[in-house]
Amino acid sequence: MTKRRRDREEAAEALDALEGDGQALLSIDGLWCPSCAAATEQVIQRTPGVTEAGVSFATSTAVVRWDPRQLRLRELARRVARLGYRLGPPLSAAETLARIDRHVERLGIRLAIAAFFGMWTLVLSLVLYIDSGGVAASATGWWIACVAGALAVPVLLFVGLPILLAGWRTLRTGVPGMDTLIGLGVTAAVGLSVWQLSQGSSHVYFDTATMLVGLLTLGRFIETRTLRHATQAIDALKDTLPETAQRLDAAGQSVSVAAETVASGERIRVAAGQRVPLDGIVLEGASRLDRSVLTGESLPAPVASGDYVEAGCVNLASALTLVVDKPVGGRRIDRIGARIAEAAGAKGDTQRLADRVARFIVPVALGLATMTLLGSLAVGFPLEEALLRAVSVLVIACPCAVGIAVPVAYVAAASQAARRGILFRHPAALESMAGIHALMFDKTGTLTEGQLAVDEVHLRGETSLTSDEVLALAAQAEQDVEHVIARALQTAGVPSPSGQASAPQRFERGVRLDASEHGTVLVGSADFLESQGVTCKSEAADEAAPAIRVGVEVAVAGFWVATLWLKDRLRDDAVEAVARLRRGGIECAIVSGDAAPPSLAVARQLGLPDSRVYANCSPEGKAAIVRATRGGVAFVGDGINDGPALAEATVGIAVREAAGPAMTAASVAIAEGGVTRVADAVDAARRAYGVMRQNLVFAVIYNAVGLSLAAFGMIPPVVAVIAMAASSLTVTANASRLAGEG
Fold first, then answer.
1. Of 12, 660, 690, 721, which is the most exposed, with the fewest CB atoms less than 10 Å away?
2. pLDDT in tens, 397-452
3. Which H or E run contains 458?
4. Strand partners, 654
5. pLDDT in tens, 601-623
6. pLDDT tens digit string along 528-563?
7. Is 3.30.70.100 the CATH number for 3-91?
8. Run of H or E including 117
9. Pairing of the two strands 267-270 and 61-66
10. What is the CA angle 394-400-404, rounded to 5?
């Protein structure tokens, strides 16, 4: 069995493994351009059984949803193969980079051939153009034209053949694009040249054909190299996002390791509040899971020993021990590719407009070229002149500039932002960020350091417990919880290893521990204690205190025994960042789950009015506030409880060290730096959006003017080639300004 056939069989088997899901992120090998991606998308969408499909040229991926009862992926792969591309399972970042490298290498070889042979074809053609009445009219000129044609053959066969094939495939599917126009232009130029030679004339246009092929290949080479740099930057940034697991050794001790190093059959521990990193079966523990990331269900689902748990779910109540069933790469969330599909398939309004313009230009150009040919013949022009005008129309109409107007600006801006620690997951995020007028911040961990510490233990009533004993009980209750307040209590108190009757139970705003020595321990907000039947009247925080203080109430055996005052500190760059945003016309607000006093204290330090503070917000409450705000709204957060608001916002922004679910819901990730990076992201998005609009307007004007001039014979094919290349270079140069800013 040959290697190619073996690879096809392996890809087919991998596709079979995805059959039952009905949705998947698939890789597409061989895409040349956005037109190729559009044609492939059309073929997939027209396949019976497919309910939804989107193809991204930038990532060479397809997001497909289908009815497993009507369609097998092997049939879909066969349909795509007829276009000349290969459908396969999703690739890892390393595999994607390797494929891009191979493509760059092939394009480099073709570009070298096009440059070498095309240069000599152009030199010989220039001799004929310059001395059209002397050498060109002689027998020597005819032989020079023949040699020019012979030198063009390697370019046309080795370099141009893939373009011609891609043009034919896209035309056949009813989505003609750039390759179709270039293919028609090359065919017309070569056909006209051969006809001229057969008539004994040296007026040939082999140089036009080689320039078209060479310039398009150069554009593909540059574009692919740019995509590689962007992929490297984004991949490097993704490595900073949390993707770890707590692996248990033979002695039952947990060690934090990269999730990808955990194999099937090994045991892991998932603490309350953590996202499940791997698919597995519950060995020990009972809890409730938030499965909304996979199913969209808002109600928590109970799990116990023997139940199957999938990666991406959030453990809400108590710690669980799992035996891993599916490692990284085989998890359901990997197969569905939820996060990657969202990033790859999303397109902003400007990109959608550019796609429509490019698709509109192609049939218009074909129709105009035909009308130019027939009209020129009708008014008495010779066939040669009429063909020249038609060829010029096809060449000048090439939608290269339109096709790359938005992507090159996005890639340049996203790459520059990534170097500063800002990841725009897709063009739509960048465009939406440019249009926001309101920005809402979570408080703890976003505007503040998020590293709380116990500042004071205020004992209540007639309790016999000491401050150290209260801290120890609070730490024991919070021992399996991953939260900023829980970590502060765990650090402040030393839990006793004895006397615990059951595992702590986690609720929305507190935790409950049934301990045999002291009875039931409640730790949380005053509302939580009241809901558990404990009378609690919390004193307001000292608003004049220099530190931001948060109160945590503690009850033991049904009695309110203490308030634990925790302090946090405003991030050093928060004041200046918020001031920059407000100077830019963005209305800022705080939407926090914390109580009003500490939230108001932060707002006053930032110069925000009290009316822009929303305190005591539940996760659903945060999302409701975002939803009720008109216009473009960005939400900045870091916690699990910020997930609904991040998803609801026009742009969700996850700050450094954010929880896994927050990173999943956000469309912009801050991997380095503090609040200043949020202001930087807004500035970068606004600059990029301006360049996108400039590029698109220029590309449309270029095509409109160029088509008109070519139709009236004012632009010969050679000039049309130069104009086409100049338009693409102008768009790229304009976008490159973004890469140089910082």
1. 690
2. 665 555 566 666 777 777 778 778 888 876 677 878 888 999 999 887 788 876 77
3. strand 453-459
4. 637, 669
5. 889 989 999 999 998 887 778 88
6. 888 888 888 654 434 333 445 678 899 998 889 898
7. yes
8. helix 93-130
9. unpaired
10. 165
For the sheet containing 86-88, what is the strand order? Answer: 50-56, 61-66, 23-29, 86-88
Alpha helices in 397-481 (DSSP H): 400-419, 427-434, 467-477
d(CA 448, CA 464): 35
Distances (CA, A) of 378 to 383, 394, 712: 10, 20, 14
Residue 628 scores a pLDDT above 60: yes
Residues of the chain with CATH 3.30.70.100: 3-91
The number of C-alpha atoms within 13 Å of 42 and in the hemisphere containing its C-beta is 17
Would you say 497 and 462 are in contact if contact means Cβ atoms under 8 Å apart?
no
pLDDT computed for residue 358 by the predictor: 55
Is residue 653 within 8 Å of 436, Cβ to Cβ?
no
SS3 (DSSP) at 440: strand
Is the model's pLDDT at 117 over the cut of 90?
yes
Q: What are phi and psi of 466, to 5 degrees?
A: -85, 170
Q: How big is the chain, counted in residues? A: 742
The Cα–Cα gap between 121 and 118 comes to 5
> What is the location of CATH 3.40.1110.10 in the chain?
453-568
Distance of CA 321 to the CA centre of its chain: 32
Cα 700 from chain centroid (whole Å): 27
Domain with CATH 2.70.150.10 in the chain: 244-336
Q: Is residue 637's pLDDT more than 80? A: yes
Residue written as token pair 């998308």 = 41
C-alpha 527, offset from chain centre: 40
Report, at the CATH architecture level, how domain 453-568 is classified: 3-Layer(aba) Sandwich (3.40)
At how many degrees (to 10) do helices 717-740 and 400-419 cross? 20
Give the per-residue pLDDT at 293.
Answer: 52
Phi-psi region of 229 (alpha: psi -120 to 50; beta: other; left: phi over 0): alpha
Rounded CA-CA distance 93/329 in Å is 12
